[in-house]
Design brief:
Belongs to the BCCT transporter (TC 2.A.15) family. The protein is built from 26 helices and 4 strands. A 4-stranded antiparallel beta sheet has the order 1-2-3-4, with helices on one face. It starts with a helix and ends in a 7-residue tail after the last helix.
Length: 671
């Protein structure tokens, strides 16, 4: 009992999120496990009704997301940084792309790379078309389902989360995206309900993928002879190994385990793809890739808006593929969006959108062309229809496809390795995301908490796999996509409102009365220009000029009963004035010693005596709202006081405007 109490005390769980989520998760698992037929029948009826009657909601929502993100790229907001103005990316570009790609598509690329194009190619609904047209359409539809539209769904959630988290210093949770609409109510039970919804959706999505993916991995291991059957005991073994590695990876953090495995995964996937390209019909694949991109671009608008209202014979296919995909991507977007946001600090909005929309899409197109078109080419030739006859056995289809290539055992082994790592990267990033939601983005959670979520994911996946309830859980996940699509539309509105205020806040200039600059002290200023700007010089300036100026100004505020505090540090040398407030953010004006690199040409220039080496120092301002500071090395004591006052005047003017509450409301500070 005492151990449980200690675990509870050390946890960072937020009860308002975790308790209702666990109740709902266990309820759905119970119904799916013990009443699978009844539950599946009921949920299928609900899903079919939604897909038939409300499919236009998915179409219009996804269309909005695509054009919304494209508009941001070309707008003035594209240069806004996801963080402070001087933030730099935390991860290299390759690491960033590898992680978001592994989390966003992962195992689906292996599962559907052969099965989806073959399914479209051989679907009876297109039997009246010529063989060539069916092949081109198979590639087109696969591009459509795995291209820009899918990543736009992830991009809207990821961008909204990253923006409100890193720009406005709100918690990394879905509730933060509603601040322009709900204001302080995001910290109420309404905010807990939003995060609980995200937790359940994420949990169901990962559990379903884990359960169905185990079947494919098991089939591959049987294919290469490591396992002799698909018995449940082998599946338990697979889950145990995957989740053990995933928990260890998640516990090591994003910068270690997850980053390494994601990079390893991308390298392995590229090797397998190049093997199929070289050993397959290379010229045909490269040519069809070029044609496929052109066909996709040409049909982009038709595909985007098409609901097949005038083609009732193709509507069942439309519901079972396009609408199901849109629902599936939307249901996964809380998880993928949260993870992408967590690794995207320091990117600009333009960089974020372009990378998220274009790079994974280009890779998906190349991947699906090489695997899908190779499968179609084989099926029409030496396979003689064998691949298309195995559509119902998607878990075995990839390995049967690889049998038609040299060294099939090695390529199948590599495919199994990639599937395995995809599983681990999906699971470990999923564990981190679930824990972040459950703890409302607590800075540091105990490792047992991450283990708890990993073990729970594994146990429920095995229970549902054994009881045949995975289909019901998948259907539940797809149903929840409809309300979340509406929530995502609200994300777009909130993001626009935030960007408008952001642009106004940071573009706000000084009042006209503060812009005059006198040349009265030009001789003193000339001496400072020609002085050596070494570290000692700047530190003396901060201590002898800046600090007395701030102390004198603080006395003036305190005399008027406005609390003002001057604080200083030695490493690096810095001093700041903080004016305290009760309901709005404190005002802070500080100056610190900042190094900068000087051009070698300037160092060698004999007519500039103040520049003696390539490392120079300046006294640079910094502010409580994280705006970029500026050099004040030529300011006198009185000019420093005047500069602080004009910054404070600007601060008060901005704080007086209602629309700037998101920046100045002190109640939004993280605990």
């Amino acid at each position: 009992m005492s151990t449980l109490k200690n675990l509870y005390r050390s946890s960072t769980f937020k009860r308002g999120i975790v308790l209702p989520s666990l109740v709902f998760i266990f309820l759905v698992t119970f119904l799916s496990s013990f009443l699978p037929d009844m539950t599946n029948k009921l949920l299928d009826s609900v899903q079919n009704w939604i897909f038939v009657n409300l499919n236009w909601v998915y179409v219009w929502s996804v269309t909005l997301f695509v054009f919304f993100l494209i508009a941001l790229v070309f707008s003035k907001y594209g240069s806004i940084v996801l963080g402070d103005d001087d933030s730099v990316p935390e991860h290299s570009f390759f690491s960033w792309i590898s992680m978001l790609f592994a989390a966003g598509m992962g195992i689906g690329l292996m599962y559907f790379s052969v099965s989806e194009p073959i399914s479209h190619f051989s679907d009876p609904v297109f039997s009246e078309l010529s063989e060539t047209q069916r092949a081109k359409n198979a590639q087109l539809f696969t591009f459509f389902h795995w291209g820009v539209h899918a990543w736009a769904i992830y991009g809207v959630v990821g961008l909204s989360l990253a923006y409100f988290t890193y720009r406005y210093k709100l918690p990394l949770s879905l509730r933060s995206c509603f601040y322009p609409l709900l204001k302080n109510k995001i910290n109420s039970p309404a905010g807990d309900a939003i995060d609980a919804f995200a937790l359940c959706s994420t949990f169901f999505g990962i559990t379903t993928t884990l359960g169905f993916g185990i079947v494919q991995l098991n089939a591959g291991l049987v294919k290469i002879g490591l396992f002799d059957s698909k018995e449940y005991g082998y599946q338990v073994m697979i889950v145990f190994v995957i989740m053990t590695i995933s928990i260890l990876s998640a516990s090591s953090g994003v910068n270690k385990g997850i980053k390494f495995l994601s990079q390893l995964n991308i390298v392995g996937a590229v090797v397998l793809m190049l093997f199929i390209l070289i050993m397959g019909p290379t010229v045909f694949l490269l040519g069809s890739f070029s044609e496929g991109i052109g066909y996709y671009l040409n049909e982009f608008f038709t595909l985007t808006f098409n609901t097949h209202a005038y083609e009732p014979s193709t509507q069942p296919w439309f519901y079972n593929w396009t609408i199901l995909y849109w629902a599936w991507w939307i249901s996964w977007s809380p998880y993928v969006g949260l993870f992408i946001a967590s690794i995207s600090r320091g990117r600009t909005i333009r960089e974020f959108v372009c990378a998220v929309l274009l790079i994974p899409t280009a890779f998906n197109f190349l991947w699906m062309t090489i695997f899908g078109n190779s499968a179609s080419w084989l099926d029409k030739g030496i396979a003689a229809g064998q691949l298309s006859s195995m559509i119902s056995k998607a878990d075995e289809l990839l390995f049967t496809f690889l049998d038609y290539f040299p060294i099939a055992g090695i390529s199948s082994g590599l495919a199994i390795f990639i599937i395995f790592i995809f599983f681990v990267t999906s699971a470990d990033s999923g564990i981190l995301v679930i824990n972040n939601i459950a703890s409302n983005n607590a800075e540091k959670s105990p490792k047992w908490q991450l283990s708890f979520w990993g073990i729970l994911l594994a146990l429920l996946a095995l229970v549902l796999l054994n009881a045949g309830g995975l289909q019901s859980l998948q259907t539940m996940t797809l149903i929840t996509a409809l309300p979340f699509a509406v929530i995502m539309v609200m994300f777009c509105y909130s993001l626009i409102q935030g960007l408008i205020v952001d642009n106004y806040y940071y573009a706000k200039g000084f009042s006209p009365a503060t812009r005059n600059w006198s040349g009265e002290l030009w001789k003193e200023r000339l001496g400072k220009i020609l002085a050596s700007k070494n570290q000692e010089y700047v530190e003396h300036y901060i201590k002898d000029t800046v600090k007395p100026a701030l102390e004198e100004l603080a006395m003036g505020f305190n005399d008027r009963e406005i609390p003002a505090i001057v604080s200083s540090e030695d490493k690096p040398v810095q001093v700041s004035l903080t004016i305290k407030h009760q309901l709005i953010e404190d005002f802070t004006y500080g100056v610190r010693s900042k190094s900068k690199t000087v051009s070698d040409f300037l160092v060698d220039e004999g007519n500039i005596p103040g520049v003696k080496n390539s490392q120079s120092y300046i006294p640079k301002t910094y502010f409580g709202d994280n705006r970029l500071g500026y050099n004040i090395e030529y300011f006198t004591k009185n000019e420093i006081i005047a500069d602080v006052l004009k910054q404070y005047e600007r601060f008060l003017e901005l704080s007086s405007e209602v629309k700037n509450e998101i920046f100045t409301d002190i109640t939004l500070k993280r605990k």
